[in-house]
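question for whoever is on the cluster today: can someone run the full assembly for these? three chains, 209 residues total. i dont have access anymore since they changed the login thing
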Amino acid sequence: MMHAPLSRSFYKQDLHVLATRLLGCLIIRILDDGRQLSARIVEVEAYAQKDDPSAHSFNGQTPRNKVMFGAPGHLYVYFTYGMHFCCNVVAGEIGQGDAVLIRAVEPVDGIEDMLVHRYGEVTSDKKKISNVTNGPAKLCKALKINRSENGIDLCENKIWIEAGDKLAENMIGHSTRIGINHGKDLPWRYFIKDNSWVSKSGKGITYVG
DNA sequence: CGTGAGATTTCCT
DNA sequence: GGAAATCTCACGT
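^ ran it for u. tokens below:
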């Protein structure tokens, strides 16, 4: 089985450089039974410890956000709204507290498993298929990422990220972030333009460029 | 298609 | 005690 994870140094890059370079990359997930799922990252958001009041790390380290302050290249999974998990890639240096939220992915391999995780069964319903991974909590459910995946090292072999096709600069869109109440003006959401798996739930977001 | 409410638990003030 | 980096369903146009 292929295992070509991006290295630790990739994750040490500047938050925003890392966020845009994650677009187009493949996230690979090995399930407990050994089956492999893969999906292309099409939408992300950057969260910075410094000057970003919407980042979980903004007010300093707590038990919940401690993974954000650890080594880069680890997965920070948080639980929210009483029922959802979302996952982030820890960026920068140890102690920096920056992370990239993965907001949407495009299924590549194992879409039937993803459908089962999301809906309890394989379906041919077009609407359900198009909604299987186009949101941060949706993709976590599809890839079976939850509390026990918090803190996983992406440089090991349970969940990792591989380089994808290189994207031209003009294929990347920018906007303000979705679903936050502070830092609304920061254009820190990045996505692949014209990709149908990008989430469309954003209200009141502002596009740049 | 757009808007709005409810779900349901964890974390931090 | 209140807010939360969300999702789904119901209802109105």
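summary bc i know u wont read the tokens: The longest helix of chain A spans residues 111-119. Residues 45, 47, 54-56, 78, 80-84, 86, 88, 101, 103, 131, 135-138, 177-181, 201 of chain A lie near DNA strand C (CB under 10 Å from a C1').
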